[in-house]
Amino acid sequence: MVAEDQTPTGRFTTAAEVKPILNATRGNWIAVREYDGQDLVYVTHLWSWRCGLAAMAIAVNDAPMQNWPMPPVTRRCLRPMRFWMMIRSRI
Protein backbone atom coordinates (compact mmCIF):
# COMPACT_ATOMS: atom_id res chain seq x y z
CA MET A 1 0.00 0.00 0.00
CA VAL A 2 1.12 3.51 -0.74
CA ALA A 3 0.75 6.24 1.86
CA GLU A 4 -1.87 8.81 0.96
CA ASP A 5 -1.92 12.51 1.77
CA GLN A 6 -3.16 12.94 5.34
CA THR A 7 -4.00 16.63 5.19
CA PRO A 8 -7.26 17.07 7.15
CA THR A 9 -10.14 17.93 4.84
CA GLY A 10 -13.00 18.11 7.32
CA ARG A 11 -14.72 15.40 5.28
CA PHE A 12 -13.35 12.44 7.26
CA THR A 13 -11.74 10.89 4.20
CA THR A 14 -8.25 10.42 5.61
CA ALA A 15 -6.88 7.93 8.10
CA ALA A 16 -5.76 10.83 10.32
CA GLU A 17 -9.36 12.05 10.58
CA VAL A 18 -10.99 8.64 10.95
CA LYS A 19 -8.56 7.12 13.47
CA PRO A 20 -9.75 9.09 16.54
CA ILE A 21 -13.37 8.23 15.75
CA LEU A 22 -12.65 4.54 15.31
CA ASN A 23 -10.58 4.50 18.52
CA ALA A 24 -13.48 6.08 20.42
CA THR A 25 -16.02 3.64 18.95
CA ARG A 26 -13.95 0.46 19.17
CA GLY A 27 -16.81 -1.43 20.85
CA ASN A 28 -19.01 -0.85 17.79
CA TRP A 29 -16.67 -2.10 15.07
CA ILE A 30 -18.51 -5.38 14.64
CA ALA A 31 -21.76 -6.88 15.80
CA VAL A 32 -22.63 -10.57 15.94
CA ARG A 33 -26.08 -12.12 16.05
CA GLU A 34 -27.58 -15.54 15.49
CA TYR A 35 -30.11 -15.87 12.68
CA ASP A 36 -31.61 -19.03 11.23
CA GLY A 37 -28.93 -21.24 12.77
CA GLN A 38 -26.00 -19.12 11.58
CA ASP A 39 -23.95 -16.50 13.33
CA LEU A 40 -23.88 -13.27 11.32
CA VAL A 41 -21.01 -10.81 11.61
CA TYR A 42 -21.92 -7.21 10.80
CA VAL A 43 -19.15 -4.77 9.92
CA THR A 44 -21.32 -1.83 8.89
CA HIS A 45 -19.70 0.52 11.41
CA LEU A 46 -16.30 0.00 9.82
CA TRP A 47 -17.76 0.32 6.35
CA SER A 48 -19.30 3.64 7.33
CA TRP A 49 -15.81 5.05 7.84
CA ARG A 50 -14.21 3.20 4.91
CA CYS A 51 -13.08 6.43 3.21
CA GLY A 52 -10.26 6.60 5.77
CA LEU A 53 -9.43 2.88 5.70
CA ALA A 54 -7.09 1.11 3.31
CA ALA A 55 -8.14 -2.44 4.18
CA MET A 56 -10.03 -4.56 6.70
CA ALA A 57 -8.94 -7.90 8.13
CA ILE A 58 -10.86 -9.97 10.67
CA ALA A 59 -10.09 -13.13 12.63
CA VAL A 60 -12.83 -15.17 14.27
CA ASN A 61 -11.90 -17.22 17.33
CA ASP A 62 -8.56 -18.94 16.60
CA ALA A 63 -8.79 -18.68 12.81
CA PRO A 64 -6.10 -16.74 10.95
CA MET A 65 -6.73 -13.16 9.86
CA GLN A 66 -8.71 -12.87 6.64
CA ASN A 67 -8.90 -9.84 4.38
CA TRP A 68 -12.53 -8.87 3.91
CA PRO A 69 -13.61 -6.84 0.91
CA MET A 70 -14.88 -3.34 1.48
CA PRO A 71 -17.37 -1.51 -0.72
CA PRO A 72 -15.72 0.85 -3.18
CA VAL A 73 -15.25 4.45 -2.15
CA THR A 74 -17.37 6.75 -4.28
CA ARG A 75 -17.90 10.50 -4.49
CA ARG A 76 -20.87 9.98 -2.17
CA CYS A 77 -18.38 8.84 0.46
CA LEU A 78 -17.43 12.37 1.41
CA ARG A 79 -19.12 11.84 4.75
CA PRO A 80 -19.87 8.77 6.86
CA MET A 81 -22.61 6.71 5.28
CA ARG A 82 -24.84 4.04 6.72
CA PHE A 83 -24.79 0.68 5.06
CA TRP A 84 -27.37 -1.92 5.86
CA MET A 85 -25.36 -4.65 4.17
CA MET A 86 -24.00 -7.61 6.03
CA ILE A 87 -21.35 -10.21 5.57
CA ARG A 88 -22.34 -13.68 6.66
CA SER A 89 -19.74 -15.77 8.29
CA ARG A 90 -19.95 -18.99 10.20
CA ILE A 91 -18.42 -18.67 13.63
Quickly list its features.
alpha+beta; 91 residues; disordered C terminus; 5 strands; three-stranded antiparallel sheet; elongated
Shape: elongated
Secondary-structure-derived class: alpha+beta
What is the C-alpha radius of gyration, as a whole number of Å?
Answer: 14 Å
Describe the biggest sheet?
3 strands, antiparallel
Description:
- This protein has 91 residues and is α+β, with helices and mostly antiparallel strands.
- Helix content is 16%, strand content 18%.
- It is built from two helices and five strands; from the N terminus they run H-E-E-H-E-E-E.
- The strands form two sheets. The protein has a three-stranded antiparallel sheet with strand order 1-2-5, with no helix packed on it.
- 8% of the residues are buried.
Brief description of this entry?
This protein is α+β, with helices and mostly antiparallel strands. It is built from two helices and five strands, in the order H-E-E-H-E-E-E. A hairpin with a 2-residue loop joins strand 1 and strand 2.
